[in-house]
Amino acid sequence: MTENGKYQLHAYIKGRVQGVGFRYHTLQKAQELGLAGWVRNLRDGRVEVLAEGKTESLNQFLRDLRKGTISADVRDVDYEFKDPKNEFDQFQVRGTV
């Protein structure tokens, strides 16, 4: 286990997840859970998320990512947990890459 029970979650969300408020929904959930990191659209239609925080918060966040917004249709979430790098102090929406 990492120091203070913190981890990093790196996820790719597939489905109808762009143009449906998914990034801002993700931002709100991350802020509610006290997570740091970012969310961004990818040109291939997926959304990418990198978040750091406590294990239980990240697990809840992952459940929220799988649900998405009311307008989204999440088909799959590929993810992995890693040791945190502690390089973020807040959660933000980034531009498309």
Note down, in words, how this protein is organized.
- The structure is a single chain.
- This protein is 25% helix and 39% strand.
- The model has no long low-confidence stretch (mean pLDDT 95).
- Strands 4-1-3-2-5 form a five-stranded mixed β-sheet, with helices on one face.
- It has a single domain (13-85), classed as Alpha-Beta Plaits, CATH 3.30.70.100.
- Strand 2 (36-41) and strand 3 (47-54) form a beta hairpin.
- It contains two helices and five strands, in the order βαββαββ.
- The termini are far apart.
- It is an alpha+beta fold and 97 residues long.
> Cα distance, first to last residue?
32 Å
For the record, the count of structural domains works out to: 1
Instruction: Tell me the strand percentage band.
Output: 35-45%
Order of helices and strands: EHEEHEE
Provide the CATH top-level class.
Alpha Beta
Spatial strand order of the main sheet: 4-1-3-2-5
Q: How is the main sheet built?
A: 5 strands, mixed
Q: Under CATH, the topology is which?
A: Alpha-Beta Plaits
Helix/strand-derived category reads alpha+beta
DSSP strand tally? 5
The Cα radius of gyration reads 12 Å
How helical, in percent, are the residues? 10-25%
Q: Can you tell me the CATH architecture?
A: 2-Layer Sandwich
Q: Tally the helices.
A: 2
